Amino acid sequence: MDAVLIRPSLLDVSSEMDSIRGFIDDARTQGLRTIVRISGALGPITGPYAKQTTGFVTGLEGDGDDLLRRSEAYLQAGAAGIDLGTIVPPQVTRETRLDRLSAYFAMLHGQLAEYVEDGIVGADVTADYPDSLRHHLQDDWIHHLRDDCLTLTRWDAESITSHLTRSLDEHDRFGAPPTWRFLPPHILSEHLDPGDGQRWYSVAHDERMLRALALQAMMLALPGSLYLRQGDEIALSDADKPTAPLDLAEMVAEHAQAQSSQFGSPAATVRHAAHVRDKYNLACAPLAFVTGLEWCPPRALAFLIRGVLVVVNTSDSPVVLPAEAKVLLSSQSLRQDQGRLFVPPTTTTWLEAATVA
Fold it and tell me: Superkingdom of this entry's organism (predicted)?
């Protein structure tokens, strides 16, 4: 399904539900269902700053039974699902008790069954603590459990392959569909860094943006469910985002409209990726990593998903595509010379697999 995820933390659910009903109805007319977030960590849960911000509610949100009060109000208003945001693991704070969380998830599933057909429960966790991740997969039946494998990967083919494999294996082990994001839910800044200084985003601004576009294009080809933050679709960096939500929404809408008619723009690429993803039914397709292609160097990542070969050039040199290659999309422009296409470094390209086999 296509959905929009919102966190109306300043909404008083006892007196201001007309606005959320209107939003849900408007989204529905655009073919979108609405998932409402009712909690979630406000900062990193991994890295050197993990224990500095362990709170998980903000605005008018409350913990405990207030979570269920808010979730029921949103479901009654027509929400298609409830999201708990980033769960602070018990390894980071003693306030988190997995058994208590499981009890709340059980009650949340009960609410969902009462109000919504095929509803969604979602949350974010870290793969750094696999025992907690497995608990949520096995005991809590979270439909969309997003881990941070793509957030914590390094910029090389081996690291990306390892992180993808681990996430796919963990979800498959419990029969859960994989669910992806490539950036943390919170603002990514120097003092909110969930990594160790060696992750893919730990580079200068311009290089970070190219890597983000490449990872986003790669993620859009993965099986399962995908989550993009507001602004990712137009390549808006966190440093350039307004702090006021309405200002951010206005900026994103303005840039999205401008980019929609620009061939190869971030917004146009995301839109085309969604079209190709639907055409090939990539959400339900098996994935296999590919090595040994004569034209693809070992330092570049390649994987096959149904009829699409995805190449992520993590090397320092251009990848020369076979003359017959049919390009479906690319995260940035490809160079052409003497009838051959070159995939620049820090670029993801989708190819029609039959043309490059």
Answer: Bacteria
3-class DSSP assignment, residue 280: coil
List % helix, strand, coil for the chain (3-state, nearest 5): 35, 15, 45
Given a contact cutoff of 8 angstroms between Cβ atoms, the answer to whether 174 and 185 are in contact is no
Give the residue ranges of DSSP H helices in 77-150.
98-115, 130-139
The count of other CB atoms within 10 Å of the CB of residue 186 is 20
What is the amino acid identity at position 355?
Answer: T
Determine the 3-state secondary structure of 86 from DSSP: strand
DSSP character for 89? P
The secondary element (H helix, E strand) that includes residue 26 is helix 17-29
- Burial 310-339, CB ≥16 within 10 A → b, else e: bbbbbbeebbbbbeebeebbbbbebeeeee
pLDDT tens, position by position, 99-112: 999 999 999 999 99
What are 112's two structure tokens?
């969902």
Counts of helices then strands in the chain (DSSP H, E): 8, 15
Token pair belonging to 236: 């808006």
